Every structure is written in structure tokens, then in C-alpha cells.
Amino acid sequence: MKGGDATRPWGRWLVIGIPLVWLTLFFLLPFGIVLKISLSQGALAIPPFQPWFGMEDQWLNATLANFRFLLTDNLYAAAYLNSLKIAAVATFACLLMGFPLALGIARAAPRWQAVLLLLVIVPSWTSFLIRVYAWMGILGNTGVINTLLLWLGLIDQPVVMLRTDFAVYVGIVYAYLPFMVLPLYATLVRIEPALLEAAADLGAGPATVFLRIVLPLAAGGILAGCMLVFIPAIGEFVIPELLGGADTLMIGKVLWQEFFNNRAWPLASAVAVVLLGLLLAPLWLFHHQQARSMALHR
Amino acid sequence: MSADEGFLSLRALARSFDGVGAVAHVDLDVARSEVFALLGPSGCGKSTLLRMLAGLERIDAGSIRLDGEVLNDQPAHKRPVNMMFQAYALFPHLSVADNVAFGLRQMGMNATRIRARVEEMLELVRMSDHAARRPHQLSGGQQQRVALARSLAREPKLLLLDEPMAALDRQLRVQMQRELREILRSIQITCVLVTHDRDEAMTMADRIGLMQAGRLVQVGPPEEVYDRPRTRFAAAFLGQVNLLEGVAESAERIRLAGRLLPTRGAVPGVLTTVAVRPEAIELHLSAPAHGQALEGTVRGAEYMGAHRVLEVAVAGLPQLAVIIAGSAQKTPPVGSAVWLDWWADDAVVLEPDT
Amino acid sequence: MTRGLSPALRVAMIAVFVFLYAPMLLLVIYSFNESRLVTVWAGFSTRWYGELFRDRQMMSALWVSLRVASMAATTAVVLGTLAAIALTRLGPFRGRGAFGMLVTAPLLIPEVITGLSLLLLFVAMGQLIGWPAERGMLTVWIAHVTFATAFVTVVVAARLAQFDRALYEAALDLGATPFRAFAQVVLPVIAPALGAGWLLAFTLSLDDLVIASFTSGPGATTLPMVVFSSVRLGVSPKVNALATLLMAFVLLAALLSWWLMRRRASAGAAMVSPGNMSRR
């Protein structure tokens, strides 16, 4: 739309300014403070770090010690890598489950599409915490699955599933599946059936049609869905805490423990800074893709 | 110029988007109670010009004066100007009556007067029975009437119509054009309408302003713009036309395919284009006595109901279209030889396109 | 390709839906189990519902959560709507791209980071200007508004992008000031999206554990914090009962929105409005 009605500029600046001020104050500024504290020394005080306001020599207090510590203790590197691995595997599992579902919804009769989509979304309206918790009763040694398998005589010892990486995968897939399905559906439903018919008419078999036509056209939705699962999964805390074992290293859990259990605020801040750094690339990728699809469908 | 003639006057009005002129240096005067049509292809700047009148588009340069008052710096909501939007823009959450009352409420009019005015307006557009309906319960033609009532309710000094018939199907258009024209005449309102449909412009307007690339290329009553187009663009946009190029022998004669055909106001010795409407061409089945008719061969005939369009090939000229009335018996068969000529007034000398 | 699904696709879809709904169904079943243990079915009972309602800590946490969530949702709708207008309706302005990133970034930033950074901000502000003096409902409210605004912005911006600008211009043309045009025409038309945004923000706030844990203080324990501490150690029948009530509530809301959607759809089919025609 060619812009420019005669709206007064102050109204315009109020509309932009109010959310801008709020987000700058409560979203942007806090990141600066995290960065600042990640550079300060821990202390046995309340709050537990060296003060840095009102000190003339404040920058002398700046230290890279926290970051150096992250490097020296293998725990942190392992936690970062493991988070990336778990998030990547879970994202892939989400894609494998979400794609047929999204495809099925996109090809269902139009009057069913809304209902099926609602069915996908409704679980995400119920409490995230409770949905994760539900798996504790299913995967536990005395849980539904083990009870069933024991009763059927298929096993004579409970299979340990709860408090393992496996349970974490199940939890992530379960909690984040709708975020994968929605963008996939949005792109798949836009693919004209005539395109697939044309491909078949030109001699392409079903597999070729899928690989050469459907997948490339759905690439944007696949990327968006994967990022919507991958990015938050990396920093996930509730799922590894409730479903994972003591040895399930995920960086969100590490940050929580440093902060709440060890009261190591500067170290927790350093963990957050590095985590944010790791996320920059996928965040940029997601934004880039969104901007592109907005431009395409405008 | 009397005050009535320059009731609405635009001077050197301009607006550009990203350096591209959408409206470039437009001068125009519209008289009180006149219905003026801005006609042009899409993208010619006519909608932008209309939106500038409404106050919905910024003015880069020039001035808009209405009834002696400069409108330039008045925001849309303060102008004594109302617009009927292209797809009507009826408020979906309000009833027909509330849509019409909307503008009156903004004026702070009291409820009794609003009710009376709404009734009067709905009466005018014959929608009184539908006052309580919502817009989506109305047909396209009914929506248009409500939109008209809404934009007339505030008694604007100037009414703007943006493609008033674009949202209607062909059948309904002719009827609504007539209805709308009668209402506009009956209340004597000054109106500027925008359209890309030449028939709409010609049936509705007192005068037409033909726009091309942000400029007004010709302004005049419909007959004048149709009969005496100034440029190739004007000639072609208003209807089917034969554009013929030849050297003028005198002010009244142009040489075409070796013959001297009549025209007016040509400059002797200059390569000149004349525009001849297909219905202005006279067709002879044998050579006329004066010996200066174009001789050609019928290449095809298109049956159009009330008339036929013949395609006639003349050596050295582009194929000509000739409209003839009458029955099939009088139509010369394909392949037969025919002779064409016209009256001097019907071959209009064109200016080069700008 | 014809519409109509292949059998393999049907089976896959059903399997995924079973995966999505079976765990919740099990929670409902076990909430009516007399026994404390998950494995043993000791008969039908509503005992745990009684215990849930008698649980003072849970009930007061629920009250805190409901108050915080409704305040946060209301504020987030205001901020999110303003941000959505800025993004979709004001045309280009300098820094618009950065503004868009800033508004939507909280959608994807891990909660642990958002929570930590807000807590550090509140501590710093407390030291520097003495406000907020202590953490509690106020700080949780601010934190929830901050991340819920992003979600509201997305929902409202999607609706505003479809909003026919001519409606707003018609209001201006009919003498409404820009503010009145917004209040009397734009707001009523986009009201369903604002309602959806409010509900989403409310749900998010009611559901949040991580950010609340960081930014809350004594006396402002939210429901998820109580639930979390009680399930951390294992399955709790009271939580099953709570989950069942929550799901019943959501199911009702879902049915309601489905019904509204159907009504809207049939109204839409009857529409002959040319409002969706392209403009020039």
C-alpha cells in the first residue's frame, strides 16, 4: 500500500514508541545487564556479585574469568553440545511425525481442515508443564508402558525409560509437534494440486513428484517448522528436568542450577551469553526465511 | 472566470512515489454542480489524484481550492469532501442506518436530526426497507446505494466516486449508472469520479478529463473528446479508431495511398496523422465520381448485432475498420472491392503524443 | 492428485493424533483413581479433587496466577496491538526491520535467558533507583507482559494485514479523527483477533514456570511453581485432578471457538461483499 495519510506524527510516534520503550526497557536492556554481570566477579553477598554501579573503577572489575571457566570445565562444553544434539535429533523426529500429519491435513476436504488443525493446536492450549508431566506416569518403571509390557509377559524387568535421554526426546517431540505442523501445513496447503498432476502427467512417479515438487515447494515451511522446534528446544529446562536423568546434560538445566542451586549469578550470566551467541545463527535464519515468505505472499 | 466555474480548482498539483510522478502538474477547474470524470488506464494517476482531493494522499506540490478555500493542509476528516470507495468500504460491524449515520455522528449532530437525515438519505437511494440490515446481507447494487447515501449524508461540497461500478457485474452496471446519474443531477452536487471505463465516463459525466502517465491530456465534454481527440492515445482510449499517416497537401487535403482525402487544419507539407472513427467512414460499392476515395478489398466481416465491422485492406495503409449498419444482404462479401471516403470534419488531425 | 487420502497417510495421521491425545486421556483416567499409585487401579473416586480444593497452597497459587495472567494479558494486548499497527499499518519508518525483530524476538529466546535477564534487571533497578523494592506479582506481571506481547503482536498483525485499509480511510473521509476512526471502525472489526490474542497471552502467563521462577518473590508463588515442585519428585494424584480440570476448561474453549468458526464460515459463505477485491 502506498502510504501516507495525513495522520499526525505524534500519534504515529506514540504507536511505535510505547511498545518500543517497554521492550527496550524490559527486553533489550536486560541483555546488556546479563552481559555486564557475566563480566563481573562472583561474591558471597546479596546479590551475589561484585557491585558495579557507582564505582569509579567499575571497569577494573570486569573480568573474563567466567567465560574462561566455561572453557576449562568440560561440563559446559558437553552441555552445549548435548543440547544441540538433543534439539537436532528431536527436531528431526518432529519433522518425521509432523510431515505426514501436515500433508494429510492439507489434502483433507476443506471443511475438515479447520477441525483437524484445531485438533493439532488444542493440546498446546493445555499447560505445557502438565503435558510434560503426563509422560512421567507413562514412561516410569511403574508407568503405563512398563506395566502393560510386564502384564503381557514381553519383559520381566521394567525397561528404564524415564530419566533417560529417550524420555527427553519424547517430551520435546510431544510438546513442540504443533509448532512443526502449523508452518508445514501453511506451505503444503498452498501447493496447487494441478502442479502435482502436471508432474505426473509429464511422467514423474509418486516418489519423484514428492522429491522434486513437494519437498522443494515446502522447503520454506520445513525450515520455519524446524527452527520453531530447534531454537526453543536448545534452551529447554522443564523437559530435561522432569523427564531427563541426572546425566542428561542440557544447557538450560545447567543455567538454572548455576543460578538457583549454586547462586553463581555471574557464571549463569556467562552461560546465557554463550547460549544466546549459539542461537544467533538459527535466529537469523528464521527471520530471513520469514521475511522471504512474507515478501513472496504479499 | 466566475466563482461557479472554478468551484474546484487544482493548480500545478503533483505527487510522486519514490521519485516517480504519479500525478504531474495537473491544472483543472470543475464548475459547481458539474459531474467530472477522470478517465484513464490503470496506473495513470487518476486514483492518486482522487485520493489527494479526499486528503488521503499527501500533496507534494501545487494547490487544491474548493469554494474559495485552500484544502492542502486540511486532513481528510476536516474536508467538506466525501468519497464513495471503490469496493464501498461499508463498515461490516454496523447496520445500514449506522453506516449512513457514521459521518453525522462525527459532526456531533443530535440524535433526532441524525435519524431524520438518515431516513432522508435512505429514501433518496430507495433503501429505507433495509435500514437494519448488515452490509454482508445486501447485494452489490444495494451496497453501492448505501455507500452513496453514506457519502452524501454530510452534504459535502464535493463528492468523489472511486470506480463506482467496478464492483458490480456488467448487467447491473448500466442500470446503476443511470440511477446514480439521476441522483447526482437531482441534488445538484459537484462530483469528481474516477473510472477506466470510457462508456461509464461518457454516460455519467458532463466533462471528461483523460489522464495518461500522471497528466491530463485532454479535457472536455464527452462528445468533444470522442469526436475531436487531440492525441493518438486520446483517440484510441475513447473507442475504436483508424489512425492514418500521410503528408498534408493543404490545410484541407491529406495524401493517403496516392489519393487526396479531406481533413481540416492540417499543416501543408508535414507528415500528419489523422484519426477517423470506423462509423465515420463512408463505404461505396463502386468508385465515387470525385475519384479521390481509397480503394480497398474486404478482408473480413465481424457481426456485432446492431452493426457490422468490416476489415478493409488498402494498399499502403494499415488495415481499416469500417462500421456499417444494415442487413447481411447489403454487406459486401469478403474479397470484393470497395471504396472508402469521409467528410472533412471526421478526419481529425492529431498532435504528437507527449 | 485427487483429494482423499491414501490409507498409509490415514494410518500415520491417526497414530500421531493418538500420540497427542493418549497421555492427556491417561491423566484424566488416573485422576479418578482411588489409589495414590499410577499402576494400580483401586476403583473410581473423586477423592483427589477434594484434596486439590482443600490444598491451600495450590488454591492461593491459582489465585495469584489468575490475577497475574489477566493483568498481563490485558497489558500485552494493548502493547501488542500498538506494535502490530506499527508493523503493518504505518508504512515504512526508519528502523522498522529492527523494531520487528525486537518485538518478535521474545517468541524464540529461551525462557531461561529471558527470566535470568529480567531478574538481573529488577535487581539492578532495585539497587539503583530503589524500585521495584522487592520481587513479587508486579515483577512477574512485567516479565509476562514482555514475552506475551510478542505473541499478541503476531496474532493481531496477521489480522491487521488482512484489514481493508479503505474502511479506515472511509471513517476519516466521513469526518472521524484518526483516533476515532481507529476506535470506532478498526477496533470493532479486529476485536476477534484481540480476543484470541488476550486468551493466548492469558494461557501463556498461566502456564509459565521458568520466567516466573526467576522473577517472582516471596508471597507471589504462581500455580506452575507449586505444580512443578510437587511433580519434581514423582507423580501426584492431586496434579492429575488439576490437569483434568484444566483440560476440561480448554476443551470447552476449543468447542466454543470451533462453533464460532463454523458460524463465521457460514456467514462468510453468504457474503456477497466485494470487500476482498483488489484495490488500485
Structure description:
Chain A starts with 8 loop residues before the first helix and ends with a helix. Chain A is globular, with a radius of gyration of 24 Å. Chain A has one domain: MetI-like (MetI-like fold, Orthogonal Bundle). In chain A, α3 (65-72) packs across α14, α4 (74-107) packs antiparallel against α11 (219-234) and α5 (110-125) packs antiparallel against α8 (165-188). Chain A is 75% helix and 0% strand. Chain A has helices at residues 9-38, 58-61, 65-72, 74-107, 110-125, 128-139, 144-152, 165-188, 193-201, 206-217, 219-234, 238-243, 251-261, 265-297. In chain B, α2 (96-106) packs across α3 (111-124), α2 (96-106) runs parallel beside α4 (140-152) and α3 crosses α4 (140-152). The radius of gyration of chain B is 24 Å and the shape is elongated. Chain C has a single domain (57-278), classed as MetI-like fold. Chain C has eleven helices and no strands. Chain C starts with 6 loop residues before the first helix and ends in an 11-residue tail after the last helix. In chain C, 44% of the residues are buried. Classes of the chains: A mainly alpha (298), B alpha+beta (354), C mainly alpha (280). Chains in contact: A-B, A-C, B-C. Chains A and C meet through α1, α4, α5, α6 and α9 of A and α1, α3, α4, α5 and α6 of C.
